[in-house]
Amino acid sequence: MASSSSNNVNEIKEVSWSYNMATEFKIFVNNRITQDKGCLIRYVEERNELRKKVEASQDPIRKRDRNRINMLTAIINDIIDGIRELEGQAKLMEVHEQASYDED
User: Could you give phi then psi for residue 61, rounded to 5 degrees?
Assistant: First the structure.
């Protein structure tokens, strides 16, 4: 009987650990999405300010400014892709979690 009882305790610990890890990972993913969105907003604002500055001047766009705008646009696109990927992972976790509950 003692081994059966300890097996149950071990199973409960394993399930609890797994649940806590899943919860912690979801919290991590959600925090990461929030941080990435904040970063995205800052880069978009910086790029837009640079564009306004360049458009306001009568001088032709300097190559350095054009390169900076292109770089900011590329970073913005990468951040958007990363956010979409994290949101997809979060959605998969929800589906997997729901499937696990449905099996019980």
Answer: -60, 125
